[in-house]
Model the fold of this input.
Amino acid sequence: MNIGLCLDEGIPSCSEDYLAFYDERRPVWINVHFHGNAGHVLALIENTAAEKFRIFLNSIYSFRKEEQLRLENSLGKLTLGDITTVNMTMINGGVQHNVVPEQLSASFDIRLTPSLSLDDFKRKLDQWALNAGGQIEFEFINTGVDLKQSVITPDESTNPWWATLISVCSKHGSKVQKRIFPGGTDARFVREYHLLPHATNNKPIQAIGFSPIKNTPVLLHDHDEWLDKTEFLRGCRLYSDLVQALAELP
Done:
C-alpha cells in the first residue's frame, strides 16, 4: 500500500464550523463474571456474587461520573471524544427466585479516549475487582488495536493535508474544529495498518474523518434523520474542491 491520506466519514456540526477528526476512541467490550457463595435466600449469605457486583458497579460508575463531570466542567474545551465513557449493556445470572446464585455476569461497552491506554484501564479494573472482594473474571471480547503512539492535535503549519482541508473550508466561508471521533469508523483500520504483520510500510497512514455538513443536528441511527437540501449541495461542492486540492499535493 502506498497511501498518503485516507478520507473517512465524520459527523454533522450543529454550528457554522465544520468538524474534522484526527483520531477516535478505542472500543473495549468486556464481560465481567462475579463468583460468590450460593445458597437459600432464607439466610443472609455473605460474600455473594451480587454483593461483589454491587461494589464493582459502584466503582466503575463512579469513574463514569468523574469523566462526565470532567466534560461538563471543561466549559467547552473538551468534547465527548476527549473522555472515556462506560455503559453497562447486559446482565445475566440466577437460577430461580429463592436461590442465591453462585455467579452473575455483566457486559460493558467502554470507549477509551486515546490519552488513556488499555493497560492503564486494565489496572483500574483489577483494583475495582480487588475492592469488590475478588473472584471476579474479565472476559475481553473486543479491545481494538493499540497504536502505540501519542495522539497529537494536527498542526496545519506542518501538515499539508490539514492545511489543505482548512484552506478549502475557508474558501467556502467556514472554519474547522479538530476533534477526536467519539465512536468508531473504518479509518481506524487504515491508521492501524502499519502494525499488521504483512504491512509493507511501518509509517502510520494519516486519516481524516470529515463530512461537509453543518447547521445540522447529529441524528445518526436515530429517528427522522434528515439533511437540508441546501446544506447537502453546499457540502457536495466543498467536497469536490477538497478532493481536487488534496490530489494536487506533491
